[in-house]
Amino acid sequence: MKRMRTDLPIEELAGAVCAGLRQYRRMVVQAPTGSGKSTRIPQILLEENAGGPGEIVILQPRRLAARLLALRVAEEMGVKPGDEVGYQVRFENVTSARTRISFITEGILLRRLIADPDLRGISTLILDEFHERHLYGDLSLACALKLQQTRRPDLNIVVMSATLAKDDLITYLNPCAVIESQGRQFEVSEEYLDRPLHPQAKIWDEAAQACETAARGRDGDVLIFMPGAYEIQRTMESLRGMLAARDWEICALHGELPPERQNEALRASDRRKVIVATNVAETSITIPTVKIVVDGGLARVNRFDPRRGINTLMVEKISRASAEQRKGRAGRVAAGHCVRLWTATEHAQRAVAETPEIRRIDLSEIILLLKGVGLGDFAAFPWFEAPEPASLQRAVLLLENLGAFQEGTGVLTEIGRQMLRYPVHPRYARMLWEGEKRGCYAQACVVAALAQGKSVLRRNVSKQTDELRADVLGGEESSDFFLHMRAWKYAEGRQFEMRACDKLGIDVQSARQVGKLVQLFQSYGGKSKDSQPLEARASSEAIRRCLLAGFADHVARRLDQGSLRCELVQGRRGDLARESVVRNSPLLVVAEISEIQRGSGDVVTLLNLATAIEEGWLAEVAEGSVRESRQALFDPGQRRVMTQVAVMYHDLLLKRRLVDQADPSEAAVLLAEEVMSGHLVLKGWDDEVEKWLLRVNFLAREAAELGFHTFGEGDKRMVLEQFCLGSVSYKDIKEKPVLPFLKDWMSRELLGAMEALAPERMQVGGKKLKISYAANEPPSLSATIQELYDLQDTPKILGGKFPLLVKIQAPSRRPVQITQDMAGFWREAYPKIKPELQRRYPKHEWR
Q1: What is the rounded CA–CA span in Å between residue 716 and residue 697?
Q2: Among 153, 352, 786, 830, whose Cα sits 20 to 30 Å from the Cα of 84?
Q3: Cα–Cα distance between 446 and 518 in angstroms, integer?
Q4: Is 124:103 a contact under the CB 8 Å cutoff?
């Protein structure tokens, strides 16, 4: 093939690239964006026959980059896209048997590995923009290296990066060639904010103002980085409100735009162009006319939250490496200027680089793919950076729940093998397989297609649009998917005419993509494939059961009909999306659980794409997933123990009812607890009982060797439980005598010893005086002097071993003296106090 030289910096290294790959078959290329590595290295390898006799495949992390790079290379080579140069992304396959250079997304390669584990026909695999550390990129490199080390030693592997710290990669691929290019980067000046943005500041307004200021006195186009489509739209609105923008061409650039809109953003213009883009413009795509970059410093990052089991899409601060990439967009052809909407101090505090996806998102799809290509020993798999063990465990557990793996063994099941046929997340793969079995595959394909991209129905539409949508698309409201299906059919039936779709808030581009995906998914159907028109055969129930099979861990129960609050399995909670049509079903399964950060900064957990399900279906999901539990509880209103019968789906309460019956032992425990807490009062637990227990505790302290034990709170609880045994209500125990029950707990011998050693009363003269027992003082007698005339010595109990405390009183019962020495009292104290007492109480006898 004729050599087509350019003036791109990578051309200077063409010889080293070819020689290095021929020698090692592994190569690391580090070169900045704009150096030509993405477009020229595939051509150089093809031109110099250094890439081998087969296809040169270049993996790109984004569909937009794969398509645009293929078109650029085809243009440079003077060929038609799909001939010698082509591309394959999720919705398009522009390749042919003649294609020698293919730009594909990373997921496409893994699907090819399932179909052909040896990747026959591919001689060189190039992983571009590897520094972005996408999950599929990491996995593709590991699989390619494993294949090269075993069955395909002739396979060439090239890893290209702009900012990756290459040492770890070189060690991983060792031995390998290393090619470095400094590129041709013009100086780009940096400008930071003097002070941090106010927390309430709108990033789009700040970016528009910075754009106007930076463009004043500088030439060239402007590239503004925003985290998502919403922020892009708001930025464009702010820009259009500025006088300076009257002569500007303002364009959006992000992955959800149709190809023609993407091309429009990249096309040269006679006017100054301001392109507001997501991080798709950060790498791979070069816009030579850009000389000013305004960086909002934010990106939407997908993460998996293991605690709640949900995917989160949060706006986060980009790393310093990403900021450098964005800055470099302004220095491709001349000196440029970069405005960063944060301070220099804040910049120094940012992360050096992004966290690799393998450490922050769900791994179930790649784990299933690895099993599918026979690489199921995850511990021995040659990861470039191994995932966390907990992440692997979660992925395996989900696949077990979906029936793809045998529980506890990790062996791929027949269901798992069937799921590998479908190029979707395992949840939807399980749903599609269920659709084949239930005869609703065509409908299941539409449901899966609707869930893959941007919603067909726009959210937050006007009240008028909402009412019109309800009139035109109204129908069965047992699933949000059914409404979306009708919206898609409406758009398809009107040839996706923009005006008709806009009236109902239907996103035309999303609806077009659904059609492409439906065709793709239907091509993967097996013998049960249903090709009849939508809703011709399949019942609503069949499709809803399919959704339940794929999202069995996303079952939710409405907490009340007056709000959108729901409770889910695993103790999670969230709010049903306001636009959901499934508002009357108490039990749902939701396809999307997302933690979303609003523009105000608030974080909410939203349940989207809900489907009504029946409780009876849940038992089919997994053996033992639905169980009935019975729990005794005390009903304060009826003052009796009832039994709550609860039906649980895993840990989610589905329903409960109270029945007027209870296990005797459980009822006794609950009644005793109510008595202990003071909510129920036993009339029989009176002062007599308390005094009797004080006698027992005295003997436990002073005569434990005889077998007496202290009666404490624990003993009281135990006794009460036995006392309440056989009863279920307060009525049963309220009047029941307690003291006889307590005495029955004590042996005859101990009862006899108690009466002898710690009597309730003591004979003094002609009277039996009561002995008081207390917790914190010795037992005592309380009596008047006249009652004690015959008591010359201190009275004793415990067989004469323990002297009582005598509380001596005047005839009026007023205390006179407390003593344990009665002889001393009569001898010394009494003669001194007698005259005064005799004067006060002359009518009483005084000896």
Answers
A1: 12
A2: 153
A3: 6
A4: no
Q: pLDDT band for position 525 (50/70/90)? A: confident
Q: Can you tell me the distance from the alpha carbon of 364 to that of 550, in angstroms, rounded to the nearest whole number?
A: 13
DSSP strand pairing (573-576 vs 603-612): parallel
* Nearest C-alpha neighbor of 635 from the set 722, 560, 731, 736: 731
Enclosing H/E stretch for 513: helix 508-522
Beta partners for residue 656, in sequence order = 646
> By the 8 A CB rule, do 358 and 385 touch?
yes
Dist CA 481 CA 448 (whole Å): 9
**What SS3 class is residue 674?**
helix
Domain boundaries, the chain: 9-180, 188-355, 361-420, 424-550, 553-615, 687-757, 761-840
Strand 767-772 relative to strand 780-784, pairing: antiparallel
Q: Which residue has the tokens 């106090």?
A: 833
Phi–psi pair at 641, nearest 5 degrees? -85, 130
For residue 319, pLDDT over 90 is answered with yes
**pLDDT tens sequence across 699-756:** 999 998 988 988 988 889 999 999 999 999 999 999 999 999 999 888 999 999 999 9
Q: What b/e readout covers 388-420, taking b as 16+ CB neighbours within 10 angstroms? A: eeebbebbbebbbbbbbbeeeeeebbebbebbb
Confidence of residue 164 (pLDDT cuts 50, 70, 90): low
The token duo for 477 is 């409201």
Q: pLDDT at residue 14 above 60?
A: yes
Q: Can you tell me the distance from the alpha carbon of 617 to that of 623, in angstroms, rounded to the nearest whole number?
A: 12
Q: Read off the pLDDT band of 5 (50, 70, 90).
A: low
Percentage of residues in the chain having pLDDT higher than 70: 95
Span 9-180 CATH architecture? 3-Layer(aba) Sandwich (3.40)
**Residue type, position 231, single letter:** E
Q: If you ran DSSP here, which 8-state letter would residue 689 be given? A: H
C-alpha distances out from residue 551 to 394, 483, 546, 588, 676, Å: 15, 19, 9, 10, 46
Contact 146, 134 (CB under 8 A): no
Name residues whose C-beta falls within 8 Å of residue 74's C-beta, 6 or more positions apart in sequence.
80, 81, 83, 84, 85, 86
Helical ranges in 85-155 per DSSP H: 106-115, 135-149
CA distance 673 to 678: 9
> Residue 116: which residues within 8 A CB-CB, separation 6 or more?
none
Residue reference for tokens 């293991």: 306
Q: Which residue has the tokens 């398509």?
A: 67
pLDDT for position 620:
86
Cα separation, 584 vs 295, in Å, equals: 46
According to CATH, the superfamily of the domain at 188-355 is P-loop containing nucleotide triphosphate hydrolases (3.40.50.300)
Contacts of 654 (CB under 8 A, 6+ apart): 557, 587, 615, 618, 626, 646, 647, 648
Higher pLDDT, 594 or 690: 690
Q: What percent of the chain has pLDDT over 90?
A: 59
Neighbouring-strand partners of residue 636 = none
- And the tokens for 181? 């290019």
